[in-house]
Amino acid sequence: MTTIHADTADAVAEAVREAYAAGRSLEVVGTGSRRGYGRPVDADAVLDVSGLSGIVDYDPAELVLTARPGTPITEITALVAGHGQHLAFDPPDLAPLWGGEPGAGTLGGLLGLGLGGSRRVSAGAPRDHFLGFAAVNGRGENFSAGGKVIKNVTGYDLPKLLAGSLGTLAVLTEVTIKILPAPRAATTLTWFGLDDRAAITAMTRALNSPLVLQAAAHVPAGCGACADRVRAATRLHLAGVPVAVAANARNLTDLLGDFGVPEAIHDVAAIWRDIGGIERFTKPGEIVWRVVLPPSTAAAFTAALAPGNARWFYDWGGGLVWVILPDAADGHAAMVRGALAATAGADGHATLVRAPDAVRCAVAPFQPLAPTLAALSDRVRQRFDPGGVLNPGRIWATS
User: Fold this and answer.
1) How far apart are CA 366 and CA 208, in angstroms?
2) Alpha-carbon span 399 to 397, nearest angstrom
3) Burial class (CB in 10 A: 0-12, 13-18, 19+), 165
4) pLDDT of 217-253, one tens digit each?
5) Which residue has the higher pLDDT, 57 or 399?
6) Which helix (H) or strand (E) element contains residue 244?
7) Residues 277, 182, 280, CA angle at the centre, nearest 5°?
8) What is the reported pLDDT for 130?
9) Mean pLDDT over the full length of the chain
């Protein structure tokens, strides 16, 4: 397959214009660390935008950073950490889940994927920190939206539309994101030995309290990495100024006193990196599903899965369930989506996150949309990419 390298916005626009005029399609890739997500792309050529990299502008005082989409996330996190700041939406490093190297992801790939980490419950998703962009649509036209300030209210909020679109609407050529001050102290309180229902009850009580939690996760016995394999671990994360973290830890211990005495862990980076990145909980060749649902239905959902055939753990206080299963020709789609429909109804959705290419071609990786939403989604795609040039088949099956 032909590969076209484009390291400027004009080069991207020219490549897309030529493809549109010739009726050809393009697979848009940076480092390729997220190629395993969604359907395999069926395109005539590859548009490599990994050279479209580098920091354009960073103003620590204004909490705003502008960069080209091929900029490695590791470069950005190191830069802002030097100023006592961080990416508050907690970008998960999912590259190893799909066989890539740790830290291989880029800013454009992160926004195109649109998935936040464990702090999603407190800080929001990447879309909530995506302020503006420049991009090329499926006709090869340059356009921009949003701005380079946090308080920007002009025009349609297109950054939220492009976040999570997996490069099917436009090719990003420059992006602006919000940066926030990093917490000065952090601790994770861990209760060992709770079953799933008790853990979700504890996490829900904590998250509904006036206490400010950053993250809440529960890893059942036998699913965890390292020490968590033996005992179930329910983890509640606190961060902020030292005095507030200490006070919240005491109050949280009192609030959940009927669940026992927690263990306080202060060196927590590896714990939450493993939970957000998933890969440490899986074995090569296993199928991985990402299920989002009301926390009140999470324990019933996992109980409805085939006993002895699945492992799982909970993030977002039970609102996100990662399900790990052995390889199967149908990816266990009927079981997972059937259990979801029976317990959460229309209030949940299940995404096939990792599976062999043959499975991702045979099974719809994303939750099927209701007819009205599917029609609206198709109209949006037609306006941005009427020729189906960009990443065809990544989200929608090609006809």
Assistant:
1) 30
2) 6
3) buried
4) 999 998 865 445 678 999 999 999 999 999 999 999 9
5) 57
6) helix 242-255
7) 15
8) 96
9) 93
Whole-number Å distance between alpha carbons of 58 and 289: 36
What is the Cα 74 distance to its own chain's centre? Answer: 16
| SS3 state at 349 | strand
State the helix-helix crossing angle for 295-303 and 196-207, rounded to 10 degrees. 170
Query: Model pTM?
Result: 0.94
CB 187 within 8 A of CB 249: yes
Contact status, residue 353 vs residue 289, Cβ threshold 8 Å? yes
N residues, the chain:
399
Give the 3-state secondary structure of residue 136. Answer: strand
Q: Ramachandran region of residue 202, left (φ > 0), alpha (ψ -120 to 50) or beta?
A: alpha
In sequence order, what are the residues at sequence separation of 6 or more whose Cβ sits closer than 8 angstroms to the Cβ of residue 34? 94, 95, 98, 105, 109, 112, 113
CA–CA gap between residue 129 and residue 148 (Å, rounded): 11
pLDDT in tens, 315-361: 999 999 999 999 999 999 999 999 999 999 989 999 999 999 999 99
Closest CA to 7 of 71, 64, 66: 71
Tokens standing for 94? 């999912």
